[in-house]
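User: Run a structure prediction on this.
Assistant: Running it now.
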Amino acid sequence: MTETTTLSAAERLRLRPARGSELPMLARMLEDARLRLRALGLTQWQSGYPNEETLAADLSAGRLLVLAREGGAPLAAGALCFGEEESYRAIEGAWRGASPYATVHRLFTAREALRGGCAQEWLRQAQALCRARGATCLRADTHRGNAPMRALLETAGFALCGVIRLCGTPEPDPERLAYEKIL
């Protein structure tokens, strides 16, 4: 695909579990996303995490979801995690919702899908999955300087709730802005 992918009302995109055969492509998409973050001057994802092994672990755990056209290649991918997050126990600020909640981690898009609404659609369909599994809210965090992700979350109706610190991360700056959307 050489042109930018944009969504139209007629397109049928579906959020589905990633397939093992897609791991190499997803690893390339992740590396491209890492380079885009570096170009923004961020330390986020520059420490070697996340990586292909992270994606493989997400795949094995059933939490790596991709947004794709029927029979098509992934346009966006991320981990949708259910259950309590250790890093979210302490927040400078306050969460608006309560448990049970789900968390979005490692959301990225294919270069050709940038600014085409695919990450927004990934979040929209993830919210439906969360409701079906009984989650009352969806949480996410991002680096303070990650303006594209912050804009995506805010456009999707997430509220900035405060600041958390990532536990057990190799990241040099573990402070993250914490967002939440009540479902």
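DSSP finds four helices and eight strands in the chain.
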